[in-house]
Amino acid sequence: MRLAHGNQAGSFPFAVPAFSLVSKGIFMSLGSSLLYGFAPVICSFSYQLGNNPYTMAFLRSVFVIPVLHVLCHVKGIGYSLPLQRLPDLLIAGVFSIMTTWLLYMSYAYLGVGTAVSIHFLYPLFTLMICRYAFHDTVSKVQLRSLLIASGGLLLFVNPHDITNVKGVLIAACSGLCYAMYLVWLEKRRLSEINDLKLSYYLAIIASSFLLVLNLFTRQLVWVQPAESYFYVFLVAMCTSFLASVLLKKGIGLIGSAKAGFLCLAEPVLSMIFGIVFLHEPFLINKALGCIVIVWSILTSFKRRA
Length: 305
Prior knowledge:
This protein has helices at residues 18-47, 53-74, 86-106, 112-119, 122-132, 140-154, 165-187, 195-217, 226-254, 256-262, 265-277, 284-304. By secondary structure, the protein is mainly α. The protein has one domain (18-304). It is globular and about 45 Å long. Residues 1-18 have low confidence and may be disordered.
């Protein structure tokens, strides 16, 4: 059974209560944010053992490939894809890879907190792309809530980093690439592809691209303790498998704009996990930013319910 993709997420050609579908999409998108938000904690444990962000991005894709291959085989999911799907899949893979690459590149110019905060402007980019490129309906409440949430993100930014224009542009481009990835999944109907199969092919594309790129960058670190590889495996399961599948399902149910907006919960969750597991300091400006973001999300979805 296929989902109908129109200008407004939530219009489906079969008789199922819209509320149940929207609720399911909301919880799946939030579940994805929860897993993505916890991943940096696991990454930090691996980095302390000699890993680096480039190797993490590569290995998390490599490690998930055999797991997804086995799951597809056990569930009887075929590996074949229509030829007309391949160009769209490759483009989605490139958007996904460029997101990670640009974000990691921005760390060389900005503090991690600032870079991630600028990257998380992608829900605003997603909304703008849907509105002006695809003429989707965007309510005033939705736009206002997103602008408020974006303002909350700015409270996470270190003022000293803003003067580094190159770093800011790179981080912003990473957010733009991710917005294009989310929109591409929805508008090219890649969300109709089986969840496991889609994640499987995206992991192959990502690992292949990064392996070729390493011929020029030489950033891959192969010699690491077993404990570090275990942490990488956990990140792969959390992000490239579970979070990716949940987000894709969320997009299929509520659309890329709404799913991207809910992903704003990720920096809030990352801050909480950082305080609990990494003993990071509790800062008032970040706490205020979290309150603003959570309030904007709750207000937006309450008014649209």
